[in-house]
Structures are given as C-alpha cells and as structure tokens.
Amino acid sequence: MARQGTDKSLGTRIRAARVAAEKSLRGFASEMELSPSYMNDIEYNRRVPSDDVLRRLADRLDLNLDELLAAAGRVGIAKEAEQYIRETPRAGMLFRRVARDRLTDEQLKTLLEQVDRMRDGDTER
Questions:
Q1: Is residue 18 within 8 Å of 28, Cβ to Cβ?
Q2: How far apart are CA 53 and CA 37, in angstroms?
C-alpha cells in the first residue's frame, strides 16, 4: 500500500520518502536516471517534475501517485480515466458535482474512503 503524505509540499514528501528508504540523493538520482541537481531542485520545490517522473518517483518510493499529482498542482487525469468519464455519464456527473459543490478536504477524504470501500466490496460502513 502506498504511503500517505502528511506534508502538502511535493518536494518534502519526496525527500522524506527517499530518506526513509535510506537512499542517498546521488544514488537515488542515478537510480532514477536524473541528475543530482535536478533531484535536489525537486526536493526543495524549485522544479516540478513531469508526470512521467512523478509516476516513477511514486513507484520507486512507494508513494501515492494521486497525492503527488495533487501536490504538483495537476489534475492527473490519465487517458484511461478520461476515457472512462466519456463512456460513463455518471462518472462525469460525479466529477462535475464535486467541482461545483467545492467539497472540503475532509469531505473529499470521506468520499475517497467510501470509493475504496465500494471497490473492495465493503459497503457495510
């Protein structure tokens, strides 16, 4: 299960996960095929990585990609999700309603938890 970040800063989340994984900046940058200076810029919020780099970071550091994309200020709608919204009218309705009603962060958290329970077949709660 991907780790949940508590700090809103993209760079801080990535840096904390790298340190927790006991990886040096230089070693991890090499593993990611990035320059150490670019990795340092990401960790100190001087540069925002591409979606591809965010995906690789999430995978290598066991971080939640959706949270990284949100912290980077991106909607992060993958082509598959966009296609699903086009093919499933209710999914589009849900997305538009959430946007229109401006749910609070706590409400969104509750909604996501409910979605996870539905996906896992636990609709009792």
A1: yes
A2: 15
Predicted TM-score (pTM) of the model is 0.62
Tokens 């991890």 correspond to: 28
Q: Residue 1 falls within a domain, yes or no?
A: no
Task: Mark whether 60 and 99 lie in a shared domain.
Answer: no
Residues 6 or more apart in contact with residue 23 via CB below 8 angstroms: 31
Residues 57-113 pLDDT 10s: 999 999 988 889 888 887 656 677 778 888 888 988 888 898 899 989 899 999 989
* Partners of residue 63 on adjacent β-strands: 3
Cβ pair 71, 13 in contact under 8 A: yes
Residues 6+ apart with CB under 8 A from 115: none
